[in-house]
Amino acid sequence: MTQEGAEVRSYEHSIAEVDRIRDIIFGSQMRSYEQQFKRVAWQLEQINKQLEELRASLNRQRADLEGQTLKLQEATEQAQKDMERTLSKQIAQLRAGMDKQGADLGTQLRDQVAELSRKDEALRSEFINAFDSLEAEKTSRGHLGDLLVEMGTRLKQQADLTDLLGQLAQAPAEQTK
After folding, report:
1. In 3D, which of 130, 136, 124, 132 has the Cα closest to residue 168?
2. Which end of the chain has fewer CB atoms < 10 Å from its terminal CB, N or C?
3. Where do the domains of the chain lie?
4. In this predicted structure, what is the pLDDT of residue 173?
5. For residue 123, with 0-12 CB atoms within 10 Å meaning exposed, 13-18 middle and 19 or more buried, which class applies?
6. Please, what is the average pLDDT of the chain?
7. Residues sharing a CB contact under 8 Å with residue 172, sequence separation 6 or more, in sequence order
8. How distant, in Å, are the alpha carbons of 17, 20, 37, 40, 68 from that of 26?
């Protein structure tokens, strides 16, 4: 075993010598490479930190933008609802105003129709009284024809029939004089 032990020691010694020679030949380059690798590893670590910070910042910005978008959407929906309510109220007010105006116009129209009916009835009554008065006084046919022509002319000119009937009532009184 001694021979084997000597061979093992010799082998280990050879390996140590090879390492020492390698260190002499390549030592400075290896140290330089190690420093460069350490520097690259440190730079990669810094870049990873920056990427993580950037990722976190982007996530915060995205969350902020989503929050702002949600708030803006809610505000828009609320404004739309408010506008719809306002428009509905205005439409209801306009309808109520139009209904009131329609009712007022209907009432005015009925009142005017009633007034015209009363005036028509009064004119008919006066006209009948005037005719009765003329008949009672036995107005001449010529005079009666002239009165009817005068009445037709005034009707065409839309003169007041009350004045005409008043004149008719005075005409027999003048004839009797």
Report:
1. 130
2. C
3. 2-107
4. 57
5. middle
6. 84
7. 133, 134, 137, 139
8. 14, 10, 16, 20, 61
Please give the average per-residue pLDDT across 140-164, as a whole number.
Answer: 73
Contact between residue 126 and residue 165 where contact means Cβ atoms under 8 Å apart: yes
Residue 115: both structure tokens together? 């007034």
Q: How far is CA 105 from the centre of its chain?
A: 32
Q: What tens digit of pLDDT does each residue of 5-52 get?
A: 667 677 777 888 877 877 777 767 777 888 898 999 999 999 999 999
Residue 44, token pair as written in the block:
């990669």
Which helix (H) or strand (E) is 74 found in, with range? Answer: helix 2-137
Distances 19 to 5, 8, 24, 47 between C-alpha atoms, Å: 21, 16, 8, 36
